Amino acid sequence: MQLVQPSIIHFSSAVSSAPTPVMAKTSTIVIEDLLRQMFEIESVEPVRPWTPEEEKAEQLFLNSVHRDDCGRYVVSLPFSEPPESLGESRHIALRQLYRLEARLKRNPVLAKAYQEFMAEYLELGHMRRLEPLDVKHSPNYYIPHHAVHREGDPPERIRVVFNASQRTSNGRSLNEILLVGPKLQSEISCMITRFRSFRYVFISDIRQMFRQIRHPESDHDMLRIVWRNSSDEPIQDFALCTVTYGTTSAPFLANRVVQHLAEEGSVSHPTASRILREHTYVDDVHGGGSSLEEALLARTELIDLLGSAQLELRKWASNCEQVLEGIPLEHRLARSVSVDMSEDEGKPLKMLGIAWDPSSDTFFFKVPSSPVIHTKRELASQVGKIYDPVGTVALSWITAEPAPLWKVFVGNRVAKILSHLPKEHWFHVRSAENSADVASRGALPEQLMTCQLWWNGPVWLQSDRSSWPIKRIRPDLNLGPVSDEIRASSSIS
């Protein structure tokens, strides 16, 4: 027998001299504080409070607004700083005029349209010629101006733009010392939704809205321009007398005047007052009523109330010819409507930027089609070009045929069921009248014995089909399948 000597293996561990950090933390979070923070972060502020500058613009408006002898509103420019803070500007306006004249010489049609515009401006009293002594008055500001021609418009149709952002000799402009004022317009999506709530509707436009609101003579020196019909004539100085587009305060002043008119007419013209407050976007006025009488009343009150302030409505259109009775033909919007919106068919009517067909009272959109296979980037670009603030276009694909959306297994069986019983025979039954719910929710045997809903179905099922409570939200609405059985797909948003 051989003895085996046992062996012992010794292990030794080196003691590390590296320090071991230890941290103790105590949390004192109070559940009430967390709850308060959550509500503060997630809460939606119903109305944004005005800034001090916006409050000042409102106060300046209230202090200056009044009517002249004709009933036209007069408002002062809302200065944030004294006009004396501006430098010299006439020599800058002269350089702009010389460049404009060179452009007009190259385009006789544009030159004629520009001359007619300025002549009308002077004839209507929207600007006045300054005498030599008046030219020396200071402080003053000269506004450069130029023509803008929108693509698709006739060559003779132009828009003269006044640039009050042009800097003076000291680097400051008129717009820099004017208060912008608060935003007074409602959201377009809300206005379109309200527009669709009327059965009888109409749209119209306040003619030359900005130019029907005057400035006091004390502000005219800050709204000067230089102009002449021909380079052979001497340059003349003019003063603009009305609210001028191109000044930062113009949108606020014009919209605030309309609101002020609505406030003044809230008792004498309540319907028109409501339309001016809730259904007016700048100079676009739209309204209507649930009945023809309501729509006619709204139209009559609007014409009377706006007319008291020398504001006239033009470009009338309606989904009902009776609403337009009494409106002169020259005051109606005479544009042809074409669903395909081809160039030969003319331009469509538009309601807040969306093409509208009054005859069918429908919105429609121009979606360009191309045989080329698009990439995701190109598709996203095309979708972004469709102006649809309320998501109307989405309804066209939400209500698409559901069969392609089913999974193959379910889709085959749905197709077979629909071949025997078309979708026109399928209707929704309210839960309270659904006999299948009696079993699925559980019922005792003695309850089933006397449950007429279980044995006979809803009461109306035993009557003639014409009396069934069939309610259609939209006749062409196809309810989609349950989400668990939908085939996976991609979408662009």
TrEMBL record:
GO aspect biological process, one term: DNA biosynthetic process
Domain of life according to the entry: Eukaryota
Organism of this sequence: Nesidiocoris tenuis
Protein name: Reverse transcriptase domain-containing protein
Taxonomic path: Eukaryota, Metazoa, Ecdysozoa, Arthropoda, Hexapoda
